[in-house]
User: Fold L-tyrosine 3-hydroxylase from Saccharothrix yanglingensis.
Amino acid sequence: MLGHHVAVCVWRLLCDQLPAAPADPAAGDAVAELYDAYSALLLYSGSCSPQTYATVIRARMKARHPAFSGTWARDYEQVSELLGRFRPFAGERVKRALKTNRLVHMTVAKRLVPQGKSLLRESGMDPTRTVDTDRDRFDEFFGVDRAEVCRHEFADQLADRVRLVLDDLAERPDPVRYDNADVARLQDALPDLLDRLVSFTTRKVTP
Assistant:
């Protein structure tokens, strides 16, 4: 839950940076760093055992809806749309971050669901068709309450959640290790990436 809360904040920050990225190299670098932070959060969120994932997390998602999917997140949808416009301009650093993100997704999925597919694919539903009911279901499941807030309030909420993740990692280091060097690098970089997240809330962006 906590990892997804921070991921939602990262997606919001990506929505800030992506419109400016084609013309602003600094915004492009920010996109790459934010994607690395998102990838590291996937590793953190997926650090439970496959047994716990199957019997607790996946079971709860399936009980909420047979096709429950993280792609239902409103913020993730917006990032995907903005990223599609940015791809022709993306520099090498962004391309590496996106490639690593796909690798992390596949690596975590293979460990947690080695013999199966995502609930969405198992259901046979159209993965490209998302409706507001699905979006609301994602928010409800992960305890996301949406409202207009100022940048300072957003920064405070993000900082509180980052502190909780860092405290959790200090008390209970991630027991899962991966053989892939790029994946392991992101695991080790998570504390530093989180430390820098709040600084993105103070950056002025001119699309």
Summary: The mean pLDDT is 91. The chain has one domain: 2-202. The first helix runs from residue 2 to 17.
